[in-house]
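Lab notebook, bench 4. The sequencing result for the construct came back, and we need a structural model before the next group meeting so we can plan mutations. Quick request posted to the team channel:

Model the 3D structure of this chain.
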Amino acid sequence: MWNRFTNLGDLAVMLPLAMGIAIWLLAQKKFASGLHWLLAFGSAGLLVAISKIAFIGWGIGNRDFDFTGISGHTMLATATLPVLLYLLTQAFSPRWSHLAALVGILMAAGIGYSRLVIQAHSLSEVATGFLCGALVSTSFIRHGKDTYSKAAGMVLLGLFFLITGQQFGQKAPGQDIITRIALHMAQHNKPFDRSMLHNSSTQLNKPLPLN
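Done. Here's the predicted structure in token form:
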């Protein structure tokens, strides 16, 4: 069960959904909403990447809170699912849109909890991911004053089923890419990992020579 929640929150699913929302908004000429969504979502994604690069490359984390970087799964889900359900409900039954967003938040919380169950993240990492994602989704919803037709809602619903049907269970190489970037930037040939965070005697391999 929890693996299914984790799969739903994977970058391979959530990033296409987020981009689908942006394209859907822009196609309807909701340019302010589309730009708001892209900036907010992109900023949160950048923050996640920076936190992971800082730890993988330089060991910048927190031993007391067992923090090695913001949970990307949790952030992606908490940013995307409430907005997706909000927009769909705005198209079909606007008076239920905020309740739908709350359902999205609860689904994202389940994805965050799944990361704890499978021991992929610590509580601090999931909590910061949830907070980052919630800031994105609540900011978008608070400023959302657009109206949407039922026909547009059907298009968005179709995008949801298409993307999840194609991408569910797929694994995006996001962590591998971040690791390569971190090692290149830090000029190390071995990444920091969680065990090193709790071992004060940890020594990294010698840095790779600069080209």
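Residues 31-58 form the longest helix (28 residues).
Will bring this to the meeting.
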